[in-house]
Amino acid sequence: MDRRTIFNGRLLPVALLLPQLLLTFFFFYWPAGQAVWSSLITQDAFGQGSVFVGLDNFVDLFTDPLYVASIVRTVFFCLAVSVAAMGIALVLAVFADRSIAGRGIYRTLLIWPYAIAPAMSAVLFLFVLNPRVGLLGRWLNDHGIAWDYTLNGTQAMLMVISASAWKQVSYNFIFFLAGLQSIPRAVTEAARMDGAKGWHRFRTITFPLLAPTTFFLLVVNVVYAAFDTFGTIFALTQGGPGQDTETLVLKVFRDGVINQDIGSSSAQSVVLMFGVIAITAVQFRFMGRKTVS
Amino acid sequence: MKDRPDYLAHAVLILGVVLFALPVWLVFAGSTQDSDAIMRGDLSLIPHLSNLSVYKRVLLHGTMGTEPVWHMLMISFGMAMAIACGKIVISILSAYAVVFFRFPFRQVAFWLIFVTLMLPVEVRIIPTYAVMADFGLINTFTGLWVPLIASATATLLFRQVFTAIPDELVEAARIDGAGPLRFLWDIVLPVSRANIAALFVILFVYGWNQYLWPLLVATNQGLDTIVIGIVKMIGEETQTDWGAVMATAVLALVPPVLVVVLMQRWFVAGLTEGEK
Fold first, then answer.
1. Domain span holding position B181
2. CB of A73 within 8 A of CB of A226?
3. Given CB atoms, is B249 within the 8 Å cutoff of chain A?
4. Chain A residues 216-245 with a CB less than 8 Å from chain B
5. Which of 125-144 (A) contact B at CB < 8 A?
6. Cβ-proximal residues to A134 (8 Å cutoff; 6+ apart), any chain
């Protein structure tokens, strides 16, 4: 792995590394340390100082039904977004991989949504599905279907899942298409010769060969749904109605920034950090450390 | 098989294209229409091209008390460029040091960076905000981008690219008497330009699309990015100037979409090779 030929010098490499190390220290290690420290203390009743309380903030957190509900909601949301975004992308990629006329144009027209901001997908969905100004939302109400995601929690969840998944399809499409293109033609041709028909061939040959891509995308999509969708949800529902679309990141924001409960929100940040570390560890375990090599 | 057009594939792909294009078209068509008509639900899918002046109006004056849209676009552009260029520069430098030198604690330094690989800014917002306050960077342009250029992904990518540079090339450069900085500039940067281009697209879009961090660190309206601005605009549903909001939405989409479409080839190759 290491190079045989290198340059000499001690000072230069340290100088080259310094900017990255300083930024990493000040914006990763220092805040992470602060979060861990703040999660272990609490302000006393008179606001005079802080008291070390050990794991009390965490105990409070996990015995709080609202927090547990938020965990369950976030897991459901992440899985729903990942399955929807990956499923649609896979179907599109399979057809875009066929040798048809205009495939280059189709690809460009399916890749550009990568550029859409999560918050922007919320704005676009609002114009389609808002019960008052949205084209489709208005139509639904005019035709006897009571559609209002600002009042109905189930509809709100459906709305944030759709907007979040919609934005992520093109990312998955790019990777699925690359995955499909890397499958040797000889393999699919051989299966065709053996008489394997379309769906059967896909299920037994193509899909298993895509497994590494699928697993990689699952991890990326779950992380996307858990964190990057803050803008989408905040712009559409602000976590409401009630707490019906409040994922863990929205809760950190509400408790820390709006309610100024630093102890609890720091504990929540620490929980999220452990969540991300766990997901990364799982990825490395199953991907054979592909990222580092 | 090859003679007959693949109708099913065309049908599915057209459906997919429409699924993404239609909302944007709807917003573009809406931007040229009367706000009262939109409120009444009379939104038409045919744009009134005579009303394109709404774009000039929002660019120069904004709407409902926001900053002019050109100003928000400039903030977003500056932030996206600073994040993309800043991250690329510090990542190239640190990866170069790790790959082409031997020095004490080299592995430690690498792991210190590597461990931060997947810790998005969203999980550390509150403590990072406190650090920013200590530095006096709240409500400054610097505060918008500096914390976001710290990340391991780009360093890892360049480490991979640099490791693949053949030893013979380094050897030749040393025989020619080229020092490390000259080698970096004359050989390493040119051979990595496709990766740099790909990473630029990814990071530009990443920077342009930020929402939570600017929301937190810059409450001053003069620092509103276009994404922040538009979400503020849709906030008050009842008295909204919908035509102007839709025009702003279109303007917010154009720059990152252009970057992705124009640099599509590098971007797709770089994304699928690098990030895996």
1. 52-274
2. no
3. yes
4. 216, 223, 227-228, 230-231, 234-235
5. 125-128, 130, 132-133, 135, 138, 142
6. A125, A126, A127, A128
Q: Please tell me the distance in Å from B101's CA to the nearest CA on chain A.
A: 5
Q: Which domain CATH number covers A205? A: 1.10.3720.10
Segment A138-152 shows an average pLDDT of: 88
Q: How buried is residue B166: exposed, middle or buried, by Cβ count under 10 Å (0-12/13-18/19+)?
A: exposed
Residues whose CB falls within 8 Å of the CB of residue B34, separated by 6 or more in sequence, listed in order? B243
Instruction: Tell me which residue has tokens 């050990």.
Output: A54
From the list A117, A142, A269, the residue facing B123 with the nearest CB is A269
Cβ–Cβ contact B182 with A under 8 A:
no
Q: Which residues 51-110 in chain A show a CB within 8 A of chain B? A: 88, 91-92, 95-96, 98-101, 106, 108-110
By mean pLDDT, which of A34-48, B121-135, B206-220 is the weakest? A34-48
Beta bridge partners of A50: A43
Does one domain contain both B96 and B197?
Answer: yes
CA distances from B106 to A191, B94, B99, B103, B136 (A): 49, 11, 9, 6, 32
Are the CB atoms for B236 and B24 separated by under 8 Å?
no
Two structure tokens written together for A126: 């609002």
Q: Could you please report the per-residue DSSP string of B12-59?
A: HHHHHHHHHHHHHHHHHHHHTS-HHHHHHT---SS--GGGTHHHHHHH
Contact B150 A35 (CB under 8 A): no
- Does B57 lie in the same domain as B163? yes
The model carries a pTM of: 0.90
* Chain A residues inside the 8 Å CB shell of B19: 166
Asked if the structure places residue A161 within a domain, the reply is: yes
Q: Give me the total of CB pairs closer than 8 Å, taking one residue from chain A and one from chain B.
A: 289
Supply the pLDDT for residue A8: 79
* Phi, psi for B136 (deg, rounded to 5): 70, 30
Return d(Cα A256, Cα A239) in angstroms, integer: 15
Whether residues B12 and B45 share a domain: the answer is: yes
Cβ <8 Å between A21 and B112: yes
Q: What is the pLDDT of residue A225?
A: 93
Q: What would the mean pLDDT of A102-118 be, rounded to a whole number?
A: 92
| Closest of A250, A273, A228 to residue A38, by C-alpha | A273
Helix (H) or strand (E) holding B151: none
Count: domains in chain B: 2
Helix and strand numbers (H, E) in chain A are 15, 2
Structure tokens at A192: 């065709």
The partner residues of A52 in beta bridges, in order of sequence, read A41
Largest CA distance in chain B: 76
Contact A112 B10 (CB under 8 A): no
Residue A206 scores a pLDDT above 80: yes
A279 contacts in chain B (CB < 8 Å): 118
